[in-house]
Amino acid sequence: MFRLKDSIENWKGKLYNSNSFTSSDIEELESHLLDEIDILKNKDLSEEEAFYIACSRLGSVGLLSSEFTKINTNSIYLKRVVWFLGGYILISFIQKLITIFSLFLTTYIANKIYAITTFNSDPFFYLNLTISIVISIIFLYFLFSTRYQLLLKIQSVFNYLFTFKKFILMLLFIILIIMNSLGFTILQSLIISRIDIVILQKMMMGENIFIIIWSMILCMIFLSLTFRKSK
After folding, report:
1. Does one domain contain both 130 and 198?
2. What residues in the chain have per-residue pLDDT under 50?
3. Which helix (H) or strand (E) holds 56?
4. E strands within the chain?
5. pTM of the model
6. Of 29, 105, 149, 202, which one is least surrounded by beta carbons within 10 A?
């Protein structure tokens, strides 16, 4: 069943996904769309017919995006820079979250299952590395198996916040930065207090090598989404 309100929200969602529009642009385009719909409804067209004809008269999202790209060049580049920086902060957050979670699982397994209380052997290093790899593979699998739908959703939310809720976006960035710089450091120090320093160094070396590999993959994805054109 056709719902005009839902259709308009979906149409606006496509505008949010583009990097070409400012908040005033979207509000102005929505106003034009509603005016056109009202005119067409007065000509005895149904809401569904009026909506699709009005969208056609305004132009496709791709066409509108191309036109507004020329107008909003500075805003577009600013959004791309902020999006890529946000992607870097998010990647760093995910890295450290995986590290902390794998450390927690490793110490839990070693302590509860194998009754190891002093972690100063190589098996601890290999156990932690295996857990980190498994968690990362699972994360990347869900990321890629949905054809980037997760990242596209994140980008859509980012574009909406950047366009209409900059304060909330800034607050989220601050929270992630604080967690990256301080929060995870405190959690990690609590977990690694019983780990031998030599094993800890080996463990972090293996952790960093694997993280660098999939972080490069995620950076390439964020770059591709940064310059993605709306269809």
Report:
1. yes
2. 230-231
3. helix 47-58
4. none
5. 0.63
6. 149
